[in-house]
Each structure stands twice: as structure tokens, then as C-alpha cells.
Amino acid sequence: MAMTMDGSGITFNDSSTQISGKAAAKAWITFTGAATPTVHKSFNISSVTRNSSGKHTLNFPSPGFSDSTYCVVACASDAGAVDTQAQVGGTQTSTAVNIFTAHGTGVGDYRTYVVIFSDNGTSI
Questions:
Q1: What is the rounded CA–CA span in Å between residue 12 and residue 31?
Q2: What is the pLDDT averaged over residues 94-104?
Q3: What are the boundaries of each domain within the chain?
Q4: pTM score, two decimals?
Q5: Residue 102: what are its φ and ψ, rounded to 5°?
Q6: Where are the alpha helices (DSSP H) in 4-124?
Q7: Residue 61: is the preceding peptide bond cis (ω within 30°)?
Q8: Which of 1, 92, 102, 124 has the highest local Cβ count within 10 Å?
Q9: Is the CB of residue 124 less than 8 Å from the CB of residue 64?
Q10: 3-state class of 29 per DSSP?
Q11: Cα–Cα–Cα angle for 111, 113, 114, nearest 5°?
């Protein structure tokens, strides 16, 4: 796939841009979900709310997505080996990310990584 890059970003040969292309991540974040979540880096995530241990809501900037049919990929880790499960569910303005151990225990202080893909173009 050919592409060009200039001061305004990346443009692919189908004229889509890095943010509007279907293969581009529309939002991403890495955070530690302690009692007060610490955001390390993010793109198109306006805030993180801790609902309970291991359960968080990621909020998108207004106006959000044009619908709730987007793909969320999430995982978490700590300093050692971790077996986690990520459960997600979302709306146009937010998505839930729940991180649990293999035994179903919510974990709140793990480093969490989330990437969101959508074909909504630039609606977020």
C-alpha cells in the first residue's frame, strides 16, 4: 500500500488519512486502573472512570462515534505473568473495559492497554 506523509499526517493511496482509514485505530489508551486511574498515554479518550476493581469506563470526546459498532481490543499486565480476560461493551460516547484474572477476580491496579477500531471515518 502506497502512502505519503507530510506535515498534515499520512495519506494512503485510496485518499483516506491516518485517522479516516478503516485500518487506523480511532482511539487508544494505556492506563493503570488503581483507585484513581493514571493515564499514561491516550488518543481520542477524554477520560477514564473507575467503577469498581477491574471495571472501568473509557469516555470518548464529543460527538463520539456515529454508532456503537466498533471493535475494542484490550489486555492488561503487571510485573509478573498475568492471565487476564477483557470484557467490553460500549455506546457511541463510551465503552466499558473490565479486566479479570482467570478466576474471575477484578483487577484494578494492572497496566491496561486498549485500542479501538471502527469504519466510522472521522466521526470521533
A1: 30
A2: 80
A3: 26-117
A4: 0.78
A5: -60, -20
A6: none
A7: no
A8: 124
A9: yes
A10: strand
A11: 145
Provide the pLDDT for residue 64. 85
All three cell numbers of 5, joined, read 506523509
Identify any residues that bridge with 3 across adjacent strands, giving them in sequence order.
12
For the chain, the maximum distance between any two Cα atoms, rounded to a whole number of angstroms, is 48
49-88 pLDDT, tens digit per residue, is: 999 888 899 999 988 888 888 888 888 876 555 556 666 7
Tens of pLDDT, residue by residue over 11-52, are 777 777 666 666 678 899 999 988 899 999 999 999 999 998
Neighbours of 52 (CB within 10 A): 9
User: Phi, psi at residue 75, to the nearest 5°?
Assistant: -155, 165
Phi, psi of 3 (to 5 degrees): -155, 160
Distance, CA of 21 to chain centre = 17
Q: How far apart, in whole angstroms, are the C-alpha atoms of residue 105 and residue 34?
A: 15
